[in-house]
Every structure is written in C-alpha cells, then in structure tokens.
Specification:
4 copies of one chain form a homotetramer. With 198 residues, chain A is mainly α. Chain A has one domain. Chain A is built from 10 helices and no strands. In chain A, helix 1 packs antiparallel against helix 3, helix 4 packs antiparallel against helix 6 and helix 8 runs antiparallel to helix 9. The longest helix of chain A has 29 residues. Chains A and B meet through helix 1, helix 4, helix 5 and helix 6 of A and helix 1, helix 3 and helix 10 of B.
C-alpha cells in the first residue's frame, strides 16, 4: 500500500481540524472594541495556540511520511489514532475557552496534547516495525530529543496546572515553541541521503 | 474514467464526516471533572465508536479501490450511495447521544450502520459487474466472511436493541472489533499478484 | 495552468458542501420513532435531494474536466462562480426545511438551482472560448439536450411553485432524475477518441 | 521537500474556509420574501465579498506555487501564517454581519484583510530567500504594483471606516475588484519561460 492516499486523507482531516476551531470562537456580544478585547481575544490566543499545534503535527507528519515507503494496517490505524486525539483538540480548546481561568479544562487540554504526543510515538514505532532496522525514519530521527522531552514537559504542565493554570499554559506554549524552531533533522537527512525527485 | 478523483472526493467526504462529529459532542456544562465525566464522557465513547467505523470504511474503501482499474457511472453512484449513508452517521450518533439510554435512537443507529453495509455491498457488486469475471477485487475478497457476517450481527443488534439497548451496543461494537482485526486479504493479494509501483 | 489543482480544490469544496447539510438537519425533539418521522424525516428527503444534486454536479464536473487540457483565469473564476451557487444549496435547503410547506423558500431553492445551472453553462462557455473550435468538450457534449432542458424545467418549477409548492418540488426532482440517468456522452466520447492513460 | 503536499493542505483549508461561511449566514426569521430581503440579503453580500477574497487568495496561491520548486520550513510556516489570517475571515465576516452598520466590526474586517495581505507578503519573501536571486517568482512578479497598492487601500479603508463605514466597504470592494481583473503576470511568464508539462 502506498502512502499517497493516507497522506491525502490525513491532510483533509488536519485541514478540517485546524479551521473548525474558528467556528467555536466566542463571538463578541456587542459591536464595540471593548466587546472584542475581553473573552473573544482570550479565545483568539487559545485558537492561535491550537492552530500552531495542529500546524506542527501537520509539518512533522509531512516530514515523517517522506521517509516512509509503504503503509501496512498497523501504520494506518496508528495514524487514525493520532487523528483521533488531534480531532479532540477543538473540543478541549473550546471547553478551556468557555471557562477562562478554570483548572480542570486547562489540565484536560494538556492531557489531550499528551495523548496526541503518545499517539505520534506509537505511529513512529509502527513505522519502525514495518520497515525494520534499515528504516530511513529511524536514522533521520537520531536521538529524537524533542520527541522525548515533550511528554515530560506536558506532564509537568498537567500536574502543575492543578496548582496554577499558568504552569500548564506556560508548559503548553513552551512545547509549541520548541517545535516551532524548524526541525531540520528530516530535511537535512533528505538532502544528504536521498536523490531529489524533481 | 480513472479512480484517482473518485478516491480524492471520497477521502474529502470521509475526512469531513470523521471530524464533524466532534462539533456535535456535548460540551460539559461546568468546568469540573464531574461535569466532564457524565454525559460528555458517554458522548466521547459514541464518538470513538463512530470514528472507528468511518476509519474502517475509509481503510476498506482504500484497499478496495487499489484493485479497481476503471470507474463507470454505476460505480460512481454506488460510491455516492455509500457516502450518503456514512454522512448520516454523525446525525444518528448525535441523536443517540442526546438521549442516553433510549431505545429508538440505538435501534436507528444500527439501521444506519446496516444501510452503510448494504451500500458497500452494492458498490462491490457494481465493481464486479464493471470488471467482469476476471475482477481482481472478486478474487481478493474470496468468500468474504466478514462482509457476510456483519449484516447478520447488525440485524441481531437492531432487533435486540428493542429488548435491551445493550444488545444493540454490544453488536455494533462487535462488528467494529471484527473489522479492526486488520483485513489482510487485499494486502496479501496485492503483495502476491501485483507488481509494486514505486 | 494545469487542471489538477482546480479539480482538487473543487473536490474539497463539493465534499464539504455535500456533507455540511447533515449539520443543518433538524434533530428529532424526542427519542421516539414518532419524533423522527415528522419534520426530521422531511428534512432527510430534502437532504437526499440536495445530496443527489451536488453528486450530479460533482460527477458532471469530473467528466467535463477530463476533456479540458488547460485552465485560464476566466475558467478559474467561472468555476468559483459555480462553487458559489452550489455553496448556497445548504442554505436554501435548510430554509426550505425550516418552513415545511411555505411557498417562498421552495421558490428560492429553485432559483438557487437555476443559478447553479447558469453558472455551469457559463463555465462550459469559458472552456469553449479557451479551447477554440476544436474543443473536445464541445464535440463530446453534442446537442446537450439535458443542459438545455434543465433551465426550462427549473423555470417551470419556480413559477409553478408560486401556485403550488408541489409543482416546484416535482420539477426539481424531475431534473435530478434526468441527470441521474447516467450521462454516457462524455464516457462514450472518451472511450472512442482518447487513448486510455493507465 | 516538494510543494505538492503543501498545496494539497492549503487547498483543503481554503476549500473549508470558503464554504464554512455559509454556515454562519443568518437564516431568515420567517418564510416570506420580506424576511429574506432584510439582514439575510446583506449577509449574502458580505458572504460574496469574503468568498471572492478567498477565491483571489486561492488563485494567487495557485499561480505562486507553480513557480516554486522546493519548500523549506520558513515557507511552510509563512504559508500557515497566511492560512491563519484567512481562517479568521469567516469570524470577522460574521461579526460584521451581526452588527450591520456598526463601525468597529467593519474596521476589524479591514485589519483582518490587511493581516492576510502582510502574511502573503511574508510568504513571498520566504520564497525569495529560499530560491535566491534567480527566483522565478521574483522575475514573474516584476514591480508587483497590485501587491504594493493593496495594503495602502486597506489602510485608507481601515482609517476611513472610523469616519464612515462606507469608506471601509468601498475600499475593501475596490481591492477585490483590482485583483479580480485577471492577473496575467504569472500566466504570461509561465507561457513564455517554462516548457509546458503535459
């Protein structure tokens, strides 16, 4: 089975998730600047955060599947697992939004992000298993420091949010920033080891 | 007519259906864990069930069209018929959700799944008819035990749900589990009979 | 400019339009069969009608662009014009739905369908102009009886609906049925004149 | 990294944005023509304006990436930045709609359009930087008069809307009209300098 249709389907789901959140943004209750700058502005920031997260996953997914040759049933379902957790991001984002400073929604948002990170890890393992020791992806990832650090920061954020929601929010933003720094590993590897396909 | 655009369109519709359901998930009415663990958690389980069903259909659709060479008008409309029944899944899911333990919504959910299964069967027949006796798909399917068993279990679930909704729910979960066990028929057939196209 | 991305974008928009209507379907107000068989069932029939219409446009669009070699700015905007009118179908469908037997919504639904038919005609003309007298599409369409008949029936339906909504509904269903009869013109032409591209 | 998947993902997001706005259109509160011709008709005009804007961006995006050979991380994130601002268009459109003649929503709609224009400029710069002095896009754009004029008109519209909303609306419509006049630069350049890829 080739990767093309799995990528196309994932693109469709991720394109949908990344834009669906705008439907859930709280509308200002009046037509004044003041009405916009309250809860709706807070909503815009959480939208931006979730948008960046989905963007990071799309970008990493994109890089990852450039190094995958063939797809089996396990990869297909691990991919659907990742999409499942990411599809819950609009849900947990809007719950967090509706209860500005409340503890539990901020904690649950972190659990959602952690779930997605674990699903991504499972997907990587499924690819390793399918491709064996000479997996290009495994070589390209190297020590995968970011991949190992992220769940730790999520857990700090989840536990910390029970004390103060700001610990959680800082942790979630921190992971996004770490990944926003462009991940050149796969790119460098592709340039070095693979013949360009123009 | 080639299969590429039919597959792309189906992918778009299925990607949309699989994520649209998250819009319909009941939001917790407060910001406590208790508010999340009641009806919203039940909603999450039905979302997961429907997500898995759409995932199974996408995966089977994907395998099926790898064995189809050309598309005619009958295949195109049989495919739209399947998409119609699957597009109703978010609707019947949310109705079931809104009335937790009620009989009729659980029964109707099963009717929806049965309708999708029959539409899938009709699509298979349209492909057989278009490709004649040497159809690769027909050879790959073999006896198609799963395909024949599923409608029977659905009917047991639909009728049983009139006695107890749990009979229905167990039946619908059972069919999903049967299909989740990866379907290696098409994969094995592709590996054995077709030259890889890298 | 090649047709591939125009087709992919149109597929995305049409996939979205065809499924978005399910979000607008009226939910039953209770959990009984009686609650389902009233307004929601009427809604299901209008959903089916609009689903079939979008399916017909997707299928015709698909056939049409198999006979188009290159896309210019006029074709691109004529295509967006068609997508605009089709994107209003969920809107006019849900208005018709919300006011079961009312005259004006049924009339406006017909105006929407007529607008889409005219936009499709404009798109055909843009393709003819871009490709000149040897346009494959022009040859394939021949006299285009269906294309000429449909606006007439729409106008009969629109005017007739002012007397009785049933005249409108029968007219709209009639056009759908005419097009559902598979349109073999393009298919026959492709088979006869073009080398298969496997 | 090739441009194919970036284009496919952008197409998905833009297809979603362009159609999502129809979900936000105000439904007529009755079934009379009068109910349709009030606020809903105004909503239809703003929908049309935003539809045309997204159509322009899709068309320009399409032309631009035909001249791009390879994508790096900076281009990928600049593209996501553009999609972010465009994804806010349904939000600012619906706010403007909900408060017909109010100043602030009209101003904010202009700020949203200006943000998208700046994000598009940043994306162009990222492509220039990645491709160096021999960038095909840079040569094709030439002096880019439209690209330089648009932000000026937006700013006039934004500031002017504080005096009268009509200044804003005229400015936003004017920019759309400027771009609707088909942009032949890229097309002409492609025809002149690149070998057709049929």
């Amino acid at each position: 089975m080739r990767t093309a249709r799995l990528e196309a389907f994932s693109d469709g789901v991720l394109a949908f998730i990344i834009t669906i959140m705008v439907l859930e943004l709280q509308r200002p209750t009046g037509s004044t600047l003041h009405a916009l700058l309250g809860d709706p502005l807070k909503g815009l920031f959480t939208y931006l955060l979730s948008f960046v997260y989905i963007g990071i996953y799309w970008s990493n997914h994109h890089h990852m599947f450039q190094l995958v040759r063939r797809v089996d049933g396990a990869i297909l379902w691990a991919n659907l697992g990742l999409l499942f957790f990411l599809s819950l991001v609009p849900y947990s984002t809007s719950w967090m939004d509706a209860h500005g400073g409340a503890t539990v929604p901020v904690t649950v948002y972190g659990v959602n992000l952690l779930g997605a990170a674990l699903a991504y890890y499972v997907l990587q393992q499924a690819i390793f298993r399918a491709e064996g020791p000479q997996s290009l992806l495994r070589q390209a990832l190297g020590r995968d420091l970011k991949g190992k650090l992220s769940p730790v920061i999520y857990i700090v954020g989840i536990v910390g949010s029970l004390v103060s929601v700001w610990v959680g929010i800082v942790a979630y933003v921190a992971v996004a920033v770490i990944w926003l720094v462009p991940d050149r590993r796969a790119e460098r590897f592709i340039n070095a080891h693979l013949v360009p396909e123009d």
